Each structure stands twice: as C-alpha cells, then as structure tokens.
C-alpha cells in the first residue's frame, strides 16, 4: 500500500508543504535562550521581591508559552507587542468573567473562556495562543486565583507580559540580524 499515492488520505494535502521546519543557526538559538532565561527570570524575581508575601501570582504557565514566541519566534505576528499584551489581557478578562458567571459548571466555564478568548482575540487582531491558556488559568486556577477576581487581569496578565516585552525590546535588538518588534499596533 503506497500511502503517498494521489488521492490517498495521507497523500499530498492542498496547501501543506512537506518537510521539516527550517533549522535555525546557533546564534539564533543562543539569543532565544538568553531572552527566555532573562525574561522568565525577571518575572520570577519581580514576583519574589514584591509579591512573595501576598496571594498574588505573577508567574503563570502561559508566560512560558509567550516566551517561546517572543524570544524564539520574534518575527511572528503572534509575538508582537499588540498580540502579547492584548492577547493576555483580553483573555484574562474573558476567563475571569466566565468563572464568575459560569463557575458553577466548571467544564462550561473552561470551554467558554477559551473559545470566547480566541474569538475576541481574532476580532481585536490580538491573537496570541498563550492567551487561551491565560483564560483557562482564570477558570481552573486555585481558590487564590478565583479570589483575585479582575485583579488577575493586572497581576499576572498585564504585568507579566509587560516584563517579557521589556526584556524582548533589549535582548532581541542586540544582534544586528534580529529586530523586535516588527510592528506595535
């Protein structure tokens, strides 16, 4: 059975290019590593210095995914400041609202939060995939996260990405062959 035969389900699909993603050079890998290390370290240190004695959380999982985009794929439209900040903030608003209105049915709140966040990010041209995780965190987070209410939109969903952005503006512009951002708005 030839799986690559024309017309076969696994054959050539329209609009899909076969092959592996292109390799990046060692310098690109190094600058991505430096940016991600410094960005996440900055968020974690700010949390430790200013928020360690509070119930607030600055470091959330979706910021790790943002670091991949902002430092590892800095030219992607999904990694630009508008998307980074707008995607997290809008998604946090949606997530908190869905928890408050639908939290009595957690599966419904989770599904509505992620789906609505995606739709609103599309409509506002702020699509940032980690935003979906931020919306979900607002729903499935701990009692401490839920007790924050709309403060979750500021800490971590606004301040965390702002810190990543500040580090990206420095690190991504040190090498002459990298430029960040590609656009602001």
From TrEMBL:
The chain crosses the membrane at residues 30-51, 58-78, 107-127, 147-171. It holds the Pfam family TM_HPP. It comes from the Bacteria. The keyword DNA-binding does not apply. This is HPP family protein. Residues 22-181 form the HPP transmembrane region domain. InterPro entries: HPP (IPR007065), TM_HPP (IPR058581). Keywords: Membrane, Transmembrane, Transmembrane helix. Coiled coil: none annotated. The keyword DNA repair does not apply. It comes from Thermochromatium tepidum ATCC 43061.
């Amino acid at each position: 059975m030839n799986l690559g035969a024309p017309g076969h389900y696994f054959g050539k699909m329209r609009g899909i290019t076969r092959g592996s993603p292109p390799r990046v050079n060692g310098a690109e890998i190094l600058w991505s590593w430096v940016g991600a290390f410094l960005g996440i370290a900055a968020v974690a240190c700010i949390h430790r210095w200013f928020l360690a004695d509070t119930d607030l959380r600055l470091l959330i999982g979706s910021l790790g995914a943002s670091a991949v985009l902002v430092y590892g794929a800095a030219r992607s439209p999904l990694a630009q400041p508008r998307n980074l900040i707008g995607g997290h903030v809008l998604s946090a608003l949606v997530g908190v609202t869905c928890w408050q209105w639908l939290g009595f049915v957690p599966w419904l709140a989770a599904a509505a939060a992620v789906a609505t966040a995606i739709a609103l990010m599309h409509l506002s041209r702020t699509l940032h995939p980690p935003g979906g995780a931020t919306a979900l965190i607002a729903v499935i987070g701990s009692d401490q996260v839920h007790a924050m209410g709309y403060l979750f939109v500021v800490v971590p969903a606004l301040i965390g990405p702002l810190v990543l952005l500040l580090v990206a503006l420095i690190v991504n512009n040190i090498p002459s062959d990298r430029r960040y951002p590609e656009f602001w708005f």
